Amino acid sequence: xxxxxxxxxxxxxxxxxxxxxxxxxxxxxxxxxxxxxxxxxxxxxxxxxxxxxxxxxxxxxxxxxxxxxxxxxxxxxxxxxxxxxxxxxxxxxxxxxxxxxxxxxxxxxxxxxxxxxxxxxxxxxxxxxxxxxxxxxxxxxxxxxxxxxxxxxxxxxxxxxxxxxxxxxxxxxxxxxxxxxxxxxxxxxxxxxxxxxxxxxxxxxxxxxxxxxxxxxxxxxxxxxxxxxxxxxxxx
Length: 236
Prior knowledge:
The protein is an alpha/beta fold. The chain has 7 helices and 15 strands.
């Protein structure tokens, strides 16, 4: 069986640091570098349309920090922060960063970090395969792990610090956020249409350029998510 490949992107405003990252990545057979950016704003535009498995993020950059970039993601990639400053570690790990590389780091330290990414990637894919075969997800609700069947899900709604999963039968309230829930949903069946809504594509009754209707519910299409939504719906 061929080895799994992790698509990755590196973002660092220092050309030398970015070049070193690229060289290290080339030495690792399971990493596939799809883009390198020394301009964080160009990286943000790229990441709106592309969703790599792993992102290397410098923390301190002009105009915007790696922390702010990570907070803007509408999905849940694996993150490895890189920085010359050691006082950002808490912020990085609060974003569920996989690792934190303090510059200058050598290849051995880099390889240890990406090996963690590979192991997590393999576990996630095994879990998704089991879910796909059984057509359910496991969601933590209060103190219980609850099985929710994917074909029953209509949409998921963000409410303050909670998420509400609307199904054909009932609604489930969980402390898990939309990013975490979306990471276990089959990407070909669900899409985020708004900062507060992920929908099950097969449940759409109809839609306009501003709203999507699922059953008796009309949900807004956010400006940030509109392009991707209409692309998936194969509309210009």
